[in-house]
Amino acid sequence: MTALLRVRDLDAHYGHFQALSGIDLEVGAGEAVAVIGANGAGKSTLLRAIAGQVPQPGGSRVEFDGVELRGLPAHRRARLGIALVPEGRKLFPSLSVQENLLVAAGAADRRARGGRRWGLDAVYELFPNVGRLRDRPGGALSGGEQQAVAIGRGLMAEPRLLLLDEVSLGLAPVVVEQLYAALGTIAATGVAMLVVEQDVGTALRLAGRVLCLRAGRTVLTGAAAEVTADAVTAAYFGT
Amino acid sequence: MTWVNAVVQGLLLGGVYALFACGLSLVFGVLRIVNLAHGDLTVLAAFLALVATSTLGLNPVLALVVVVPVMAALGFALQRLLLHRSLRAGELAPLLVTFGLSIVLQNALLQTFSADTRSLPAGDFGTAGLELGGGIAVGWLGLSTLVVAVAVLAGLQLVLARTPIGRAMRATSDDPETAALMGLDDRRVYAVATAIALATVALAGVFYGMRGTFTPTLGPQLLIFAFEAVIIGGLGSLWGTLLGGLVLGVAQTVGAQIQPTYGVLAGHLVFLVVLAARPSGLLRREEVR
Lengths: 239, 289
Known about the structure:
Chain A is an alpha/beta fold. Chain A has helices at 43-51, 74-80, 97-105, 120-126, 128-132, 143-156, 173-188, 200-206, 229-237; strands at 3-14, 17-28, 32-36, 61-64, 67-68, 82-85, 161-165, 192-197, 209-214, 217-223. Chain B is globular and about 60 Å long.
């Protein structure tokens, strides 16, 4: 499989604190990879570094579709087709649900000239309740509704790589079930995904491969089907 | 009837204040910057119009064709080259930078144009009016200023609510980091907002220059009136800015009716009362954020 995203020796720092050390990762076109690990393992930092929200040190390489991303700010990476659905959803509270979706559509305007895969109609079809809430302010939704809008907003940017940060956090199991069913539909359209989750079981349902981080380093990597529960537990807790 | 006349004249004066204030309100609403050079930029626009009228022989209203684009371009450049850098250095830095800009502008204008009092030649437009009966007359200039202020604020409101760039401004104002994830370049969004704000500043400067006199050091006084209009109306609310301008204008003319020297003082007192009783302003912030 051709690598859509190729990360080599990625470090990330918050001041003097080193959050990531020497991460190597490849995500193929249309592939879903799960990033698991305990709180503070560096999972979100990895997504933020790929999306351009964390500075990329000189020795680290992040290539997307053959293009080195160093020095590219977050908005340029979004226009290349990298969409981050951030932890906490971060909807724009003063924009309506529909405006939240539309604001991301501009990122794909140049790439989507040949026709859009994800427009308002497609997002409303995937998440019918989002369509019903289209005129509500982004700040006046339940957690599950917000998460659906956040994923829909990511899709409106016509991503080739969707970075999902803790989709299930704080949501009821039935809501998580619905959201992951929708993510399965999205994956089937050929959008590659990097899924960060603390809930290992949930993440592995979607992903073909898994990467486990502990204290900013890779401690386990392999095909989801071949990784045993004991290996994950050992990698997760370092036992 | 003199009291009715005071209120009518106050509403017309309020149109000028609303026009002053809408650029300040927009920049605060989108960039979260209180631009302390706002008044000096208004005076700069008036002087640019003066140059355009004296060198090109243009009527001040026609001079807007030159002054508005020049000020908009200045706003774009100012944001890209100066203000954006200061935004990254915390909340205090933009205040200091715009305060410094205010001093630089005042001194540059003094150096170029001297301290003489100037005005823009409005001709008959500045003196003719409409007799409403009962001793009440409305000047065409004052009426035009009020109409322009309402049109500018309504237009800005429409841009913010209905257009992609308006949506981008509100999203970036809400959360610039997440807006970047949507492909929005905050530098460009902020620069466009500042350009629009300075286009309105150009209108304010030219209408003020036709209505009264100006000097290079008038800026801080205009800033206070604009600031009071924004605070009375509600920070970041464009309709609130219109209301704030009108309230300030009426307070000043009614105060002056009581005692001619009380005009400006009455405006300040109304501002203080609003600040004490309703710190978020008469209209809550909704339109911009």
